Automatic annotation (TrEMBL):
Keywords, comma-separated and alphabetical: Coiled coil, Membrane, Signal, Transmembrane, Transmembrane helix
GO molecular function: metalloendopeptidase activity
Descriptive protein name: M23 family peptidase
Source organism: Paenibacillus pinisoli
InterPro entries to which the protein is assigned, alphabetical: Cell_wall_metabolism_enzyme, Dup_hybrid_motif, M23ase_b-sheet_dom
Coiled coil: 69-103
Domain (M23ase beta-sheet core) ranges: 221-315
Membrane listed as a keyword: yes
């Protein structure tokens, strides 16, 4: 390496007319200058490569960020829409629950009325209406609730209302079944009880009990109720039953006896015509004959008897309703 410490002289001859230029440099300088130039070039190349790479990455990152930002905004908007829809649902559901609750208490009230009609004692059937409560604005008004808290509270309250209603319905079902059974029984009893007028006429010509006999003039027991009318007027079965007698005898004339069960019978005397035979099943209000003047009778009328346990009773208390037009 001795040559590095030596000095070198460069001679530059620009033109024949100009003076010669001399440059004197050390050997070290000759080595360092190219080395520096190469280093600088390498560094520059390296910097360019790295920077351009980074710039690309940055651009990509920026792009990605803007993409995810818009995606996030979209998601946020969707979520807000979903929450708004759910809030609306909860509010509607709560209103619906309150409406159903009101309807249920109305049904319970109706059931009570039905029981009253059917004459059911409260002890016979468990009353379900006790469990029905209608609360308005359930959560105490003093507390200031934020909208989302309010919504949560409303949802919780609605849930509670719905489960309470489900319980009430479970309780109501057997109670309603029992009421229905009782009503059906009541209806059946009504069907076999002689409650209707056996003729269209309301003209009572003779009542039940002791009276003066129109033939002998002496006091005698009148075993039925006489209804005045015209010959041929329709005569109706006073209740559902089976015809046990349909005959013409003296002094009853054409007469019909109907057995209604439970020891109750009705009898229709002095008929013009009999329209049913023994064994016939009749319904309350069915046409069974015509009003007449047969047997021991002083004029066209129906002699109507109600027999309970074999004893003649006053038919008057039984005449409670008009026959339903069929
Ligand atoms: Zn009579």
């Amino acid at each position: 390496m001795k040559w590095m410490s030596k000095r070198f002289t460069f001679v530059v001859i620009p033109d024949a007319n100009q003076s010669v230029q001399r440059y004197s440099v050390s050997g070290l300088t000759i080595v360092l200058i190219p080395a520096l130039i190469i280093l600088l070039a390498v560094c520059s190349a390296l910097f360019i490569v790295l920077f351009s790479g980074q710039a690309g990455n940055l651009k990509e990152a920026k792009h990605q960020l803007s993409l995810s930002e818009s995606g996030y905004e979209e998601q946020l908007k969707e979520r807000e829409d979903t929450i708004a829809a759910l809030e609306a649902d909860v509010t509607a559901l709560s209103a619906q629950a309150k409406h159903v609750e009101t309807k249920m208490s109305e049904i319970a009230e109706l059931e009570l009325q039905l029981k009253e009609i059917a004459g059911i004692q409260e002890s016979e059937v468990r009353i379900s209406s006790g469990g029905v409560t209608v609360e308005e604005g359930g959560q105490g008004g003093e507390e200031l609730l934020l909208p989302e808290d309010l919504n949560d509270a409303l949802a919780a309250e609605t849930l509670q209302e719905l489960s309470s209603m489900a319980l009430q319905m479970d309780e109501m079902k057997p109670s309603l079944e029992a009421t229905k059974e009782a009503l059906l029984k009541h209806q059946r009893i009504l069907e076999i009880t002689p409650t209707i007028w056996p003729a269209d006429s309301r003209k009572i010509t003779s009542t039940f009990g002791v009276r003066r006999d129109p033939f002998t003039g002496r006091a005698a027991v009148h075993s039925g109720l006489d209804l005045g009318g015209s010959r041929g007027d329709p005569i109706y079965a006073a209740a559902d039953g089976t015809v046990t007698l349909s005959e013409r005898t003296y002094p009853h004339g054409n007469n019909i006896l109907i057995d209604h069960g439970r020891g109750i019978e009705t009898r229709y005397l002095h008929l013009n015509k009999r329209l049913v035979e023994v064994g016939d099943k009749v319904k309350k209000g069915d046409l069974i004959g015509e009003l007449g003047n047969t047997g021991r009778s002083t004029g066209p009328h129906l002699h109507y008897e109600v027999i309970v346990g074999g004893e003649h009773v006053d038919p008057m208390p039984y005449l409670q309703e008009d026959r339903e037009e069929k």
